[in-house]
Amino acid sequence: PMWKDMGPGRQPASLSPVSTVLTIYGSDESMTLPCVTSTKVIEVKEMLAGKLGVDPTTISFVTRQGCANRKQYDHEEIRRNVTVVGIKSFTRQKERYVHPMVIIGAGHIGLRHGLWFLKYKMENFVIIDRRNQVGGTSWIAQANKTSKLQTELGTYHLQYDEENPVPTNMPTWPSRDQLLEHFHEVCEQYGLMPYIKLNTNVKRLDITGTDSFTGTIAFHLESTDGNYRGVDPPEPTGRGIEAIQGTAAFYYPGNLTIPKRVDYKGEDEFGGPIAYALHNEFDYTATTGANVVVCGHGAFGVENVRTCCEFDARKIFLLCRRKNLACPRMVSWLANQSALPVSAAMFLRGLSVAYGILEGPGWDPWGFHSVSANEARTQATIVQKSRFGIGDVYFLAVYMGKCEVVVDDVKRISAGVVHLQSGRKLEASVILKVFGFNGDWEVDKLLQVKSMYGYWPDKDNRRYIASEGPGVSASNFGGTSLSPGAIAWVEQATHFMDFPRDWTKIVQSGMLPVHKAEPEIDRPAYVIEARTSTAIGMIVPGFCPEIAERGSTVYAWLKRTRQLECHPLKAFLAEAEAEWHEYGKAWKRLDPSLKDPPPYPYTVEMVQAWVDETDGRLQ
Known about the structure:
By secondary structure, the chain is α/β, with parallel strands linked by helices. 30% of the residues lie in helices and 22% in strands. Strands 4-3-7-5-6 form a five-stranded mixed beta sheet, with no helix packed on it. Strands 10-9-8-14-32 form a five-stranded parallel beta sheet, with helices on one face. A five-stranded parallel beta sheet has the order 16-28-17-18-24.
């Protein structure tokens, strides 16, 4: 028999299933609660208090006994029909504010936040951006006309949500211009444009109080010249100066924004273009028929290999001090369609197929500097300072000899030659520098950040900064794309303004990681490493049942359904294989000395087996 502690002494507890009808006093709102005969009043109170974010001592239950009503005590078994006193609804009541929520940045995440507000009829907000169009830093200031989405459209589109349809008018890997058009069309279609204030710079904030309980924020604005598209602060214009009062500042500065710059000895002697390949400051036609040195092996370096190939560069030297892992298309697809995170061990097994076609030592991904694994290769962790460059072109170009990865460093430069520390000389006519990006210190300055508590400056629920951090640090991979993370960031930021008492609890716990600026490595406080982001993502749902429920019942399945709706396995693999052969044949026609392109290394059966293995963990 089963027993239950019911107060002084011990007595048998009835576990017979029953239902209790809870009706709110003074209304017709009721809820049927499944429970057992021995469920106590205090248990139901605590359940309701946790759901609604209130103190359980403010809730009381009244039941009919004979011809009178009486209050039930905490130690009693809950009756079958009770009236609930002390709450107005079983739906949690959101905090109301006079002043608007202010979103700084009309990029992917800022626009996603605006769509979230509109979805839930929260129309007291404004989105402010310095530029003359929506799209954000990544696609306006950093991308160039040849840039394409590295991940898949299914998990990278603006209306990503469980109630919205997927886009049907874009390719799997859309270009910069196609994505900018997509952002604008979605803003028009969903009625977001009237809430967006373009060509406007937020000059400074006047912050009163320490959180939403104690003060507001004044936003001092100035119009830009209408042509601003950069990353540095725009020049003052003296026009359109105004101040607006706001409730919160949600800042989405984009990914890391300031390019890391390195000058080499002898650059003035080179005689050819040396560029950082940002926006449209470099004309890629200069790479046609040329030897190109791409300095840097991060995601942007891998992307530049593809771009140089599309412009028919003769030879590409990808120069780096050590090789970072790159991610083939099928492995990215695998992670983005998975309902459960893909283990790093499986991720590496997937990478091994593409790396396995490359000849010579040093191509086993399990042996890369970023990988730690057990001897049996059943468990692994990947930690590297750069995010994955995603795509198949890198692997094909290295195999065929169109691209050579050179692990070395620059000693000096002379006319048409890059001299390496090892003594090797690379003959080239173009040098592209892609060393990655640093955070923007103006972000810390504007939001007056002393330290970050999770994503919140100085434990203030009104100030929130979210952007993609540097690098990779994981033993499991939930995906490679932005939209799933964007929707989670937006919901977290909004939640603690809607329910500020939840914020009080998480502050009092002291459990969120704290990050301060690190000037010695040029890292502002708001730039948070991948490992820290993972910790935040685990801690916050523990204090917020609503967020935890969304994570377990919506996020994973939303990611999977949207990915598979856009990219079924057979169709996606066929598209990736066709791209592989198209590139290979084109390069071979231009340069018959290259190796023949190999068969596409992935098959439907191979990838489906990985899907089945991951899905087996759901059972």
